[in-house]
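User: Okay, second chain of the day. Same drill as before: sequence in, structure tokens out.
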Amino acid sequence: MNRTEFVIVTAVILFVAFALGWFANWLVHRFTRVRQQDLGELDRMAQALHEAEEIRDQAIEYVETRERDLTARLSQTEAELEAAMAGLREARAEAEYYRSQLQGTQ
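Assistant: Same drill. Structure tokens below.
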């Protein structure tokens, strides 16, 4: 194989490689092309997702506020229950004291 044949074979191989690369690039762009209709649908989906995230954030905020309110009410109710139980204990002790005083005088 002389020098001219080597150059021609190398040029043909490079051209074939270029042609295959170009064809592969064309195929990739052909199958991954995004149509205008698809972009509109993606925009609608993005807007719907954004609205859903806002609604989710509002719901989380509402739940947290409600939980704080209910926790405060529970604490207050527990304090009132403790006070009522203490008052009942004192009333029972006082009633027992008076009962023992009555039985002691009889």
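The helical segments are 3-32, 36-105.

User: Thanks, on to the next one.
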